[in-house]
Design a protein that fits this description.
Number of helices: 17
Number of domains: 1
Order of helices and strands: HHHHHHHHHHHHHHHHH
Helix content: over 70%
Radius of gyration: 21 Å
Length: 444
């Protein structure tokens, strides 16, 4: 198979996944935009709460991510029974995790206060999480079904459902945050309610589509029966993925906490710059999802040449997009940051000044971030998750977070120094994980 053929196959699978990831992120972007227009304190609180919610979510999403390579491999081997067993137990593991996380969201204010956040911001963040926490079970179910459908190469439906979710979330937010259409003005509570409703409807839509499209898999028939063997396989592959996700997102959450020590304006600017960076990152995530499916399929067929050639193509595509994002961040920082703030906000100028510098640093770690997410995706495709977990734990925390604290507080670079720590952590992880993938692929 030629490189052009690999590129076509990756883009056919990956473009709807990219669109789905961007649309999914647009849901969270809508919350940030509308709360930024509503109140800067509300924006700072939901930035904190959103980071906290996301780190809990992405850790539990390890079970959903495990579904993708396992289903792709089983499908390549013609084992439809295993496809059903793996997907169903992925849902079981995810739901159990989601329920276990609810208390951590309901009583989150003392945690934020203990981490040095302002008491008023902590209380608002807890108010948001006490409602948004109920969106965790359907959100994790969406993650499992998305990975199942991606592995079955039915990605257009994912894009359609996610685009519909963007519209629903925006309409609910507009009504409940500001009190339009006769609805009460609920502020951050309105944003949380919108998130729960959107996740619930998305889970329902994907479940209906999966059942109708693949009736032979009988995903929800006798759903109460637990498959111990498949559950152990999911947990075995999924928990290192979850902890790897925790290490990476934990680095970003720690950065939000450290920036929060510097004040509300710095935290608001951090949240805006992080939203812009994460939006660009969704393209890499979509390509990474396609890379995992393609690698898992090649792995199931024992096609080592196809695996390595496909990896070269998807890495090139990801790095090429990273260069485009670098140019945008360096050329249009004021326009990007200003879009998140009300034109008459008295703190607008100060937040834009801080955000401009943060986007300049964000441009630095685009290449590192693209490299590490692509290496992780390829390693998952060949069922290698434990060593990447160790690499992530070392690179993101002892190196990345320590560098952020040193540069931000000891050397006095403030929020910019904290973000430079992100560059260190992501860069080291990207280099080591990419080396690991090429080493592993040569051994297959």
């Amino acid at each position: 198979m030629s490189y052009n053929a690999h590129a076509r196959a990756i883009l056919v699978l990956g473009l709807p996944l990219i669109g789905s990831q961007i649309a999914q992120f647009a849901i969270h972007m809508t919350d940030t935009l509308m709360l930024g227009w509503y109140d800067v304190e509300a924006l700072a609180a939901v930035t904190l709460a959103g980071s906290y919610w996301f780190i809990l979510f992405i850790t539990g999403a390890g079970f959903g991510f495990a579904v993708s390579p396992m289903v792709a491999t089983a499908q390549a081997q013609g084992n439809s029974t295993k496809v059903r067993r793996i997907t169903r137990m992925g849902i079981y593991a995810s739901m159990a995790y989601a329920v276990a996380m609810l208390p951590l969201m309901y009583w989150s204010a003392p945690i934020f206060t203990a981490l040095g956040q302002e008491p008023s911001i902590s209380r608002i963040a807890q108010t948001y999480l006490r409602i948004a926490g109920w969106g965790m079970p359907p959100a994790l179910m969406v993650m499992v079904l998305k990975n199942y459908l991606a592995a079955m190469e039915r990605t257009r439906a994912l894009l359609l459902v996610t685009l519909m979710a963007v519209v629903v979330n925006a309409a609910i937010n507009y009504a409940l945050i500001f009190g339009h259409f006769g609805a009460p003005e609920l502020g951050v509570r309105g944003a949380a309610i919108g998130s729960v409703i959107t996740n619930g409807l998305s889970a329902l839509a994907l479940a209906v589509y999966a059942v109708r499209t693949f009736p032979e898999h009988s995903l929800f028939a006798r759903f109460w029966r637990i498959d111990g063997e498949a559950l152990r396989e999911i947990v075995h592959l999924g928990w290192p993925i979850g902890l790897t996700n925790f290490a990476e997102t934990g680095l970003f959450t720690a950065s939000a906490i450290m920036v929060g020590w510097l004040g509300t304006q710095q935290l608001a600017a951090h949240g805006i710059a992080l939203q812009a960076t994460a939006m660009a990152f969704m393209v890499h995530v979509g390509l990474a999802n396609a890379a995992t499916v393609r690698a898992g399929t090649a792995f199931g067929r024992k096609d080592v040449t196809g695996l390595r050639d496909g990896a070269r193509v998807v890495i090139t595509l990801s790095l090429g997009f990273a260069l485009v994002v670098i140019a945008i961040f360096l050329l249009f920082p004021e326009q990007i940051v200003g879009a998140f703030l009300s034109p008459d906000d008295p703190e607008r100028a100060q937040i834009i000044a801080i955000g401009r510098n943060l986007l300049a640093v964000a441009a630095l770690f685009q290449l590192a971030d693209a490299t590490q997410v692509m290496a992780l995706a390829l390693l998952r495709g060949v069922m290698d998750t434990k060593v990447p977990m160790i690499i992530a734990a070392v690179a993101y925390w002892p190196l990345g977070m320590s560098a952020g604290y040193l540069l931000g507080f000891v050397l006095g670079f403030g929020a910019v120094g904290v973000w430079l720590g992100l560059v260190v952590g992501l860069g080291v992880a990207g280099i080591l994980m990419m080396w690991r993938f090429w080493r592993q692929s040569s051994r297959l």
